[in-house]
Design goal:
The complex is a heterodimer of chains A (196) and B (458). By secondary structure, chain A is of the alpha/beta class. Chain A has 7 helices and 11 strands. Chain A has one domain: Rossmann fold (3-Layer(aba) Sandwich). Chain B folds into 3 domains: 1-34 and 295-386, Fumarate Reductase Iron-sulfur Protein, Chain B, domain 2; 41-287, 3-Layer(aba) Sandwich (Rossmann fold); 389-457, no CATH class. In chain B, 49% of the residues are buried. Classes of the chains: A alpha/beta (196), B alpha/beta (458).
Chain lengths: 196, 458
């Protein structure tokens, strides 16, 4: 018998009497606060930053001022040109020298301060991890209330890779001291820029 | 094999005062942060009920959900392997690596690969394995297992980490700054991320309906391990399956809140299909889980989502450290999982608990942990796994408690005894209770003698 069949047979022989069907999962919607305010508060509590109010035209100048030493800026979104075009066919390791990555999120989640990205938004998934800093554009009207709403998004069923990013790479593995930039990006900034 | 002596091992942990105090404080701090998060969510208890119902439903239909997951994963372009036990798992992983000529494997933290003792298996076969979670890497470099399922090096102080790094990755000796040490690790690891032929992750959840699996990290190291090399291997215990994405929401809302007191991990990553031009291999691992599923009292432990909240709240765990359990899983959840792997080796672990029930109260999936600890004690007694001293003591106590006359005689003698017996009668090797404890002052008289006298007066 193959291991597959042996495991499935053992599971079926041993699994307990059928437990009841799962009740419907409520959406637990609340409307007492603005999603935007809640998103901002949770993002910053997770170590993320918020860019000041900008329009798409001011982005390049703001990036330059924010990251004056950045030699390589790679953008996966048309609002920012960057210093080097992103080649989705090249090996991801070639992004090792990127100082700043720029990407537009599909939506945000107020409850956690997270943004949703997939291979479509990132073009090269590793951009969000190999870059030293990450800037994420988000349309402030595209924020859902909580994770129940987020996980109803049908794009989870079609994306090869999807990630909820909430602040920069972080660790507290040495004496509980919070450190940003453990393995991935050292900083994460969200700029609220409506879709053009 | 000699059973693990948790009490003996923890006595060494307790001797290191600074470590003990930090460990206790740090984990209690996580518990306090967890409470703050839970209290901010009005539906928290409803979420716990839902989480428990989802897991119990799925585990009782696990065969069907596993087949559904496999079919979807295959249609997504992933390759699915099945491993009955640890050695088959390790062999499968090695075969995949060999077929790709992979010599270096970057991996994120996985308790399953710890359980399978995979690292030494691969390393003796010429594969360099790099743990990329900071805490797990510290433990790898120090040649120690993780002491906690979420914060693997929580028992170490900054000076310990500095010593390990100076010895192994060439950091500046004596530089104990956590920022410097984390940066040293980042710089040491990055070339491996860029050059490794293969990456490995575990999985926190697997979704039957879509064939996806989900990995939660704060460092983004799972995303680097999976998104840079051309080969991604994911090792998944068969109990990780849940039916749909809408169910995932319930768990993600509670996982990091229970573990670390943050609303979510920095990265919650969902893998469904390989990147174009790369391979994704999924290894579904049983290793005793199907057998545990058939244990009437103990199958509930398979609901566990490995948040570690029960460990953070446990007074015994906080003051004895994870390594003293001598097992892959420590703390309250370890106590109820480990004996299912090896009843003799872990026969003492069910006694590393005060049965206070706090573990059960914080568990996000409502596992009756302290009930199961108690039930494991019964199993140990029935299977004759009690150490002789404990067995004799319990026999005598049982006799005294079942006979009122003997009991009264013992009580009046105890008061006298505590006052007059030399200290060695209580503080000796036969009575581990006496270690780190002082006997409270005994009341001058028993309740019974007071009651008899006062009733007579009325």
């Amino acid at each position: 018998m193959s291991s597959r069949d042996a495991i499935l047979a053992a599971v079926r022989a041993n699994q307990p009497a059928p437990a009841p069907a799962i009740p419907a999962i409520p959406l637990f919607e609340r409307t007492s606060r603005s999603f935007l305010d809640e998103f901002r508060e949770n993002l910053t509590s997770m170590g993320g930053k918020l860019a000041p109010a900008l329009d798409a035209g001011g982005l390049d100048a703001w990036l330059r001022a924010q990251f004056p030493d950045a030699a390589v800026i790679c953008s996966a979104t048309p609002e920012v040109r960057g210093t080097r075009p992103l080649d989705s066919g090249a090996p991801p390791a070639e992004l090792a020298d990127v100082d700043v990555g720029v990407v537009r999120a599909a939506f945000g989640v107020a409850e956690t301060g997270s943004v949703w990205l997939s291979e479509k938004e990132l073009q090269v998934n590793a951009l969000a991890y190999l870059a030293q800093h990450l800037v994420i554009l988000l349309d402030p009207t595209r924020i859902v209330g909580n994770l129940h709403q987020a996980y109803r998004d049908p794009r989870f069923n079609t994306a090869r890779y999807a990630v909820l990013v909430t602040g920069p790479s972080a660790t507290a593995d040495i004496e509980g001291v919070l450190i940003h930039g453990a393995q991935g990006v050292r900083s994460l900034t969200v700029a609220m820029i409506p879709l053009g | 094999m000699k059973p693990i002596d948790h009490a003996e091992a923890s006595s060494h942990f307790i001797e290191a005062k600074a470590h003990l105090e930090f460990h206790d404080r740090r984990l209690w701090d996580l518990r306090v942060k967890r409470d703050r998060q839970a209290h901010n969510i009005p539906e928290w208890e409803e979420l716990r009920n839902l989480a428990s119902a989802i897991k119990e439903h799925t585990l009782s239909h696990l065969g069907d959900y596993l087949e559904e997951f496999e079919a979807k994963a295959k249609s997504n372009g992933a390759q699915v392997h099945w491993a009955r036990d640890a050695s088959e798992h390790n062999q499968i992983v090695h075969d995949i690596l060999s077929a790709h000529g992979a010599k270096t494997l970057v991996k994120s933290k996985s308790m399953l690969t710890e359980e399978c003792d995979m690292r030494p298996f691969l390393e003796t076969r010429g594969v360099k394995v790099i743990e990329t979670d900071l805490g797990e890497r510290i433990q790898q470099l120090d040649d120690e297992p993780p002491s906690h399922i979420v914060v693997p090096a929580v028992h170490k102080l900054r000076g310990d980490v500095s010593d390990v790094f100076a010895r192994t990755i060439g950091s500046e000796p004596g530089n104990n700054d956590p920022h410097y040490l984390a940066e040293a690790m980042r710089r040491d690891t990055r070339p491996y991320f860029l050059g490794a032929e293969a990456g490995m992750t575990g999985a926190n959840f697997a979704i039957a309906e879509t064939g996806s699996f989900v990995v939660c990290t704060n460092e983004g190291n799972a995303d680097l391990s999976a998104n840079v090399p051309k080969l991604h291997i994911a090792c998944i215990g068969i109990e990780k399956i849940i039916p749909k994405f809408e169910h995932l929401a319930v768990f993600i809302r509670m996982l990091s809140r229970s573990a670390l007191g943050s609303p979510i991990t920095q990265y919650t990553s969902h893998f469904r299909a390989p990147r174009p031009g790369t391979e994704l291999h999924i290894v579904l691992v049983d290793n005793g889980r199907s057998q545990r599923l058939g244990m009437k009292d103990f199958w509930y432990s398979l609901k566990c989502i490995r948040c570690g909240a029960c460990m953070n709240t446990c007074p015994v765990y906080r003051r004895s450290g994870g390594l003293s359990y001598g097992a892959t899983y420590s703390g309250p959840i370890g106590i109820i999982i480990d004996p299912a792997f090896d009843i003799r080796k872990y026969s003492n672990l069910p006694y590393a608990s005060t049965l206070n029930g706090s573990c059960t109260n914080v568990c996000p999936v409502k596992i009756n942990i302290h009930d199961q600890i108690y039930k494991w004690r019964q199993v140990m007694a029935e299977r004759n796994q009690l150490p002789l001293v404990k067995k004799e003591a319990i026999r005598i106590i049982g006799k005294v408690l079942s006979d009122p006359r003997l009991y009264r005689a013992a009580i009046s003698a105890t008061g006298l005894a505590i006052e007059h017996l030399p200290r060695f009668a209580i503080y000796n090797w036969l009575n581990p209770w006496g270690r780190q404890r002082e006997v409270p002052e005994a009341p001058k008289r028993s309740f019974r003698s007071w009651y008899l006298e006062n009733r007579r007066r009325q």
